[in-house]
Amino acid sequence: MHCLIFASVHVNHRRSVQTPGIPHLDQDDWSQSSGSSTVCHKCCAAGRSLSASTRVPIAQMSFVPIRAIHASGIRLSDVIVVKGPEFAESISEGDIRWIKKVGDFVNEDELVAEIETDKTSVEVPAPQAGTIVELLVEDGAKVVAKQEIYKLQPGSAPAGVREIPKSPPAVSRPPPRPMTSTPVASIPVQRITVPSGSTPEVAITGAREEIRVKMNRMRLRIASRLKDAQNTYAMLTTFNEIDMSNIIEMRARYQKDFMKKHGVKLGLMSPFVRAAAYALQESPVVNAVIDENEIIYRHFVDMSIAVATPKGLVVPVLRNVESMNYAQIEKELAALGEKARDNKLAVEDMEGGTFTISNGGVFGSVFGTPIINPPQSAILGMHGIFDTPVAINGKVEIRPIMKVALTYDHRLIDGREAVTFLRKIKSAVEIRPIMKVALTYDHRLIDGREAVTFLRKIKSAVEDPRTILMNL
């Protein structure tokens, strides 16, 4: 720790300087030692010594106003120890991945590290601006909730730290050099002949190498859960085909009106989510789960929707789907999908599902058998839509057909129940349901013609898809 002395341009004037954090200095605090160097009594009294390089020569009989600057290293008393975030109850630990290193300056809320858990990645932002002075755990090490992970020296950015320009400056191209060789047009053309049998044989082989990469924690957890499901459940899969003509026509006809009213597009997932919610309420055993020697029936539908991310498959949950309309489902799907792609899903977003839908059709899947998502009892797999010849009223027509698969736990769900459940989904997607309604009226006031007209207006309003899409 040194006291740096700077000479001013004013001489022969008695002045005193008061700098925050620096002792009050005036002319009486200075004396000359050997030569013409100046010594600070207060610094010397405090046990500080001035090296030769820090002594400032001044003229005899002149007092030079000075300014003292306190330069020091990190004050340990100002260093704060930063703890990791708190995890959900179902998560005990995670693997830390450092994004910043010792000596890096970080702004408040800037990302310092990520903790990868079994289900998601938890971000570790800086609590305030400062410089990282020590990492308390190694990269890739296991950490628990609220563990001390690094030390931070609060403060503003150093003078040398500048914002990186968004785009590099344009580099001027050097002017073309004048042509010094003979133009191509003036080079005489000669036929090149190669003696027969002299062509060397060249082995065409690609680079043969192996790269060993450590599996991240999420991928390990996915592998473990899927293998546990395979070992635990008596999984069986049943299949069916769905004619998507009505859904495709409905989307084409009412997409603009739906978008204008609700601010979100009408996709293919919301009809299947609604159809599955209806079928689950009609077949409660598919929505149930085995817990040791008991069966737990859930009278609510929390739908898990499989979403592919660069780090692996995640399954955020739509809560209480049975009470949601098309617009609410589409908005929730859009919000959860964006959070999944940005790696911002919380653990709470992926817990508690009762049934899962996986849409492999977005990747062009033709057919497949999904694996149950523990601890649920069934999963619906959607696949691609392809023009397929089908028999309609004795004639062959080309229809957009989607193959669907239902994998279920045969310990709990019988084959009849599984097939019936899948047929209910097929019917709900393909055909609008028919409901009989009755109107009882006071005939002293209302004529039969008026009653019939009133009921027909209700029928028209309910049967019009716009009524369902815009108001329900």
From TrEMBL:
Subcellular location: Mitochondrion
CDD domains: lipoyl_domain
Alphabetized GO MF terms: dihydrolipoyllysine-residue succinyltransferase activity
Record domain Lipoyl-binding: where: 79-153
Alphabetical keyword list: Acyltransferase, Lipoyl, Mitochondrion, Transferase, Transit peptide, Tricarboxylic acid cycle
Pathway note: Amino-acid degradation; L-lysine degradation via saccharopine pathway; glutaryl-CoA from L-lysine: step 6/6
Feature: compositional bias, Pro residues: 166-178
Entry EC number(s): 2.3.1.61
Requisite cofactors: (R)-lipoate
Gene Ontology cellular-component terms listed: mitochondrion; oxoglutarate dehydrogenase complex
Enzyme class: transferase
Region (Disordered): 157-183
Keyword Transferase belongs to the record: yes
Domain of life: Eukaryota
Biological process, per Gene Ontology: L-lysine catabolic process to acetyl-CoA via saccharopine; tricarboxylic acid cycle
Free-text function comment from the UniProt entry: Dihydrolipoamide succinyltransferase (E2) component of the 2-oxoglutarate dehydrogenase complex. The 2-oxoglutarate dehydrogenase complex catalyzes the overall conversion of 2-oxoglutarate to succinyl-CoA and CO(2). The 2-oxoglutarate dehydrogenase complex is mainly active in the mitochondrion. A fraction of the 2-oxoglutarate dehydrogenase complex also localizes in the nucleus and is required for lysine succinylation of histones: associates with KAT2A on chromatin and provides succinyl-CoA to histone succinyltransferase KAT2A.
Family listed: Belongs to the 2-oxoacid dehydrogenase family.
NCBIfam families (alphabetical): sucB
Name the record gives this protein: Dihydrolipoyllysine-residue succinyltransferase component of 2-oxoglutarate dehydrogenase complex, mitochondrial
Organism: Oesophagostomum dentatum (Nodular worm)
